[in-house]
Design goal:
The chain is of the alpha+beta class. Helix content is 41%, strand content 20%. It contains 7 helices and 7 strands. Strands 1, 2, 3, 4, 5, 6 and 7 form a 7-stranded antiparallel beta sheet that branches. The radius of gyration is 24 Å and the shape is globular. The N and C termini lie far apart (65 Å).
């Protein structure tokens, strides 16, 4: 990673600042009244890379199905950021709040309130930030339980949240999001077609002879899929797995399943051979 370029940094600040309107930021002394639209355990966990010294503050690009050059950098901190959809009464719109887990964020207080009430969705909360830097503290005050009457307001989907994050915190090596969208959709359509062919092969009756070429193509299919597609394929194959992991995690699970199926097939062949 090279030295910081002031002109490049200004360009990134201008580019990202215009796209952060959907994310709720708290200034010192300000009180915000919000209504949680996604419950505590319904928030989105996103892998994050940052370094104050290097001027880096970006989500891991694997979250978007891209190769992430930041994962290879030893000087960067890697942690998780957590996102929840809330209704901002002052702005009168749905926004995202984002926090890491530490003593300077309200995540601990929210977790305690969630455990006490069993949900965050049954009342409004007043969140206030005090102090700055390492002295930052948040107070979270739960208000009286009442039904949220604005039934048209809904939580943002995971896909919409990731799109907002991608625009608000663009990576240095990423193309313009709008320009890249057609390419990304074309790639998704291509990989979906490959995935459908792969599932079709899985359901077809086995031939008398092994087809090693097909197995090689299946492995290539795994590599060409995004992490999200591999996760969905794992779920459809009945594999218990965690969301938002690296591609290699899902590939290992799928290949392990294939090995188990091949082992079962060999056992069946041996039983038939012995019976004959």
């Amino acid at each position: 990673m090279g030295k910081i370029s002031l002109s490049k940094m200004k360009s990134e600040i201008k580019k990202s600042g215009a796209n952060k309107g959907k994310i709720m930021f708290f200034k010192e002394g300000e009180k915000h009244r919000v209504r949680f639209l996604s419950d505590f355990e319904g928030g989105l966990e996103v892998k994050w890379h940052d370094s104050y010294a290097l001027g880096v503050n970006v989500p891991c690009q694997e979250e978007f199905g891209r190769d992430c050059e930041y994962c290879e950098e030893e000087d960067l901190r890697t942690r998780n950021m957590y996102f929840w959809s809330v209704y901002d009464y002052e702005a009168e719109e749905v926004k995202l709040i984002m926090f890491a887990v530490n003593n300077c964020t309200p995540v601990g207080a929210l977790a305690s309130l969630y455990e006490s009430y069993g949900t965050l969705l049954d009342r409004d909360y007043e969140i206030t930030k005090r102090g700055s830097g390492q002295s930052t503290q948040y107070s979270v005050v739960p208000l009286k339980e009442r039904k949220f009457r604005n039934t048209k307001v809904k939580a943002l989907s995971d896909e919409a949240i990731l799109k907002i994050i991608d625009k608000a915190y663009p990576a240095d090596n990423s193309e313009d999001v709008e320009e890249d969208e057609p390419k990304r959709k074309a790639k998704q359509n291509k990989t979906r077609g490959k995935k459908d062919n792969f599932k079709k092969k899985m359901n077809e009756p086995e031939e008398d002879t092994d087809d090693w070429d097909d197995e090689e193509e299946e492995k290539e299919d795994y590599e060409s899929m995004t992490a999200q597609e591999l996760y969905k394929l794992c779920k459809k194959s009945g594999i218990e797995c965690k969301p938002r992991k690296a591609k290699e995690y899902y590939i290992d699970l799928l290949e392990e399943l294939n090995d188990e199926q091949e082992s079962d097939d060999w056992d069946e062949d041996e039983e038939e051979w012995e019976e004959e």
